[in-house]
Amino acid sequence: MTKALELLARFPQAQVLCLGDLMLDRYIYGSADRLSPEAPVPIVRVQSRKIMPGGLGNVAKNLATLGVKVWAVGLVGDDGPAEDLRLLMKKALDPIEPIFLKDPRRPTTVKTRLIAGIQQVVRYDEESDAFLEGSLAELYQAEVARILPQVKAVALSDYGKGVLSPKIASWLISQAQSLNIPTVVDPKGADYSPYRGATVVTPNCQELSLAVGRPLKKTDPLALAQAGQELMARHDLKNLVITRSEEGMTLLTESGKIHHLPTRAQAVYDVSGAGDTVMGVLTAALACGADLLVGAVLASRAAGVVVGKVGTAVATPEEIRGSVA
Predict the structure, then answer these.
(1) Residue 267 predicted with pLDDT over 80
(2) C-alpha to C-alpha distance for 175 and 120, rounded to whole angstroms
(3) Taking Cα atoms as reference points, which of 313, 155, 151, 148 lies closest to residue 241?
(4) Angstrom distance (rounded) from CA 104 to CA 76
(5) How many C-beta atoms surround the C-beta of residue 106 within 10 A?
(6) Tell me: the pLDDT tens digits for 121-159?
(7) CB–CB of 183/176 below 8 Å?
(8) Distance set, CA 135 to CA 19, 74, 139, 142, 252 (Å)
């Protein structure tokens, strides 16, 4: 644990670029104590609302909370949620300005969650999954190429909303490789070929099941490890971190080693955003030149902090230190 704490103290020396799908997370909180007479659904009496960055925005916020210097390039619509995101990201990443490319043909991705007590009742999404292409794709690549030499690691958040098309994802990883910059990918979909050459890919159990074409259980680390090794060999992935919610995570390294890392969550209230926390800590660790296992241990403890909170959350250095101690 000493090495993990030493790594945490080095995070303010790190520089990271966050790319991929940017979204706005909306939370509507209330109480529910009866069913509607109109349909068999609860009536929620709204008490408060909250908005925060999601997707790559939450990864960036996690990194900034840990003291990392963060650049972020995101795609938004020409709408009100885009302005909300701009203000939130500007505050989170200060003094670095986030770069937003506007596409008037699509809405800013918004996920709205209705929560009664600590129970999520429903989530509804406003989004487009059209691939980034044409002049906008060229502008996106130009911004990335300008920033890339300034950073020590890249985080790619793929939520299937169109930014990380196969062409763009492959290009980003190739560009980072050419500069010896490690890449960490939060994947989406069944085809991992666009992530070929990535330093670390971080599927959860469900995503890994989809990628290998068979059902897997988060409580079966041996089966998960076997499936992960198949995926690594198939797509030339250097390392794999399989996130397993309250079960912790499994790290598979390019040297063939397997590490099962339990979480230390005191209670599990909400797993949303925990994958972003894992990704952020792993990327920061690589940006510091740290051993991946030490970074994974620290990421596991940070995720344990986050799943004990309701809503998309971040772990502070003080909370992580308390978890590691």
Answers:
(1) no
(2) 40
(3) 155
(4) 8
(5) 19
(6) 999 999 999 999 999 999 999 999 999 999 999 999 999
(7) yes
(8) 18, 15, 6, 10, 39
The residues spanned by each domain of the chain are 2-23+54-111+129-324
273 within 8 A of 58, measured Cβ to Cβ: yes
Q: pLDDT tens digits for 175-193? A: 999 999 999 999 999 999 9
Q: Which CATH superfamily is domain 2-23+54-111+129-324 in?
A: Ribokinase (3.40.1190.20)
**Catalytic residue positions, numbered:** 276
CA–CA–CA angle 20, 167, 146 (5° rounding) = 60
Closest by alpha carbon to 57, among 117, 118, 27, 98? 98
Can you tell me which residue has the tokens 């909400």? 270
Answer whether the bond into residue 95 is a cis peptide, omega within 30°. yes
Report the alpha-carbon distance of residue 66 to residue 316 in Å, rounded: 6
The Cα-based distances of 227 to 168, 205, 219, 257, 262 in angstroms read 26, 10, 14, 14, 19
Distance between start and end Cα atoms, the chain? 8
Residue 118 has pLDDT above 70, yes or no: yes
Q: What is the pTM of this model?
A: 0.92
The answer to which of 15-24, 40-49, 239-248, 300-309 has the lowest mean pLDDT is: 300-309
Nearest to 266 by CA among 305, 322, 302: 305
